[in-house]
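Problem 12. The chain below contains 70 residues. Write out its predicted structure in token notation.
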Amino acid sequence: MYPHKFAIGQRAVLRPGPGETRPAGPTVSVTRQLPAEGRDPQYRIKVDQDGQERVVRESQLEAVRTPASA
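Solution.
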């Protein structure tokens, strides 16, 4: 089993997919840690802006940078 990088309640940003030229996606909150798919842990996330929920792989998320950690 592979360790999860994001904790429940942690905020992150959705990364653009391979080949996509759009900027980073919306800010999301991790609501649940799920088993890995291959070597990539999965998460249930909720989009902060509209409340939409979905499952994403860890490689699709990027930690939110705060001024103290930038």
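Discussion. Strands lie at 11-14, 27-37, 40-47, 53-57, 61-63. Students who got a different answer should revisit the alignment rule from Section 12.3.
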